[in-house]
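just leaving the lab so this will be short. what follows is a protein written twice so to speak, once as letters and once as structure tokens for the fold. can you read through it and tell me how you think this chain folds. thanks a lot i owe you, the record is right below.

___
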Amino acid sequence: MRIAIAGAGNVGRSIAQELIDNGHQVMLIERQPKMLRPDRVPAADWVLADACELASLEEANVSGCDVVVAATGDDKVNLVVSLLAKTEFAVPRVVARVNRAENEWLFTEQWGVDVAVSKPRVMAALVEEAVTVGDLVRLMTFRQGEANLVEITLPPTAPYVGQPIHQVPIPRDAALVAILRGKRVLVPSPDDPIEAGDELVFVCTAEVEDEVRAVILGPDSVERTRGTG
């Protein structure tokens, strides 16, 4: 994919390097000359420009990008970049960094944001994911599709432990996309059994999260976990 990243600070450079390592073509757009450090990510295309200016984005050929990442440390800038990328250049996927938690409500499809990433939210989710067994943890929200990435770590008492995936009645509008087992990432297939300690990763709509929880953890799990929350 061709990916443009607005903001070449630590966050932008880290994202760029990881994407390049995964085989993608990355362009870093930075408006401050002192932050222009091509030696830090030499495989990226570096552009000195203001990503909030239409002419700069046109010159950088943002319309040819598959993804735009608004990764600056300023939420106002990230919102403007997202809106321009989506409305003026029809970029298929826009990912925006949320710096201040109180601004998170603004990062919606109305501002051109498909996925909003709040570091405190991600950190909290990772903490929950690491310590929570027997409940559903929301890892990320995909704004445009109203879908969530959620994780459930299976306790030994889960009803379908030891059963193949095809016997699990996964609700409509939910999909099991990965099984994390120890250090392995497994792509689920119908005949794979699920085991105690497995981390099941689903994409589902918010409306069916309780159904997913009830199926995977048992019918009383929703009331039980809410009673303790």
Q: What stands out?
A: The longest strand covers residues 174-181. The first helix runs from residue 10 to 21.
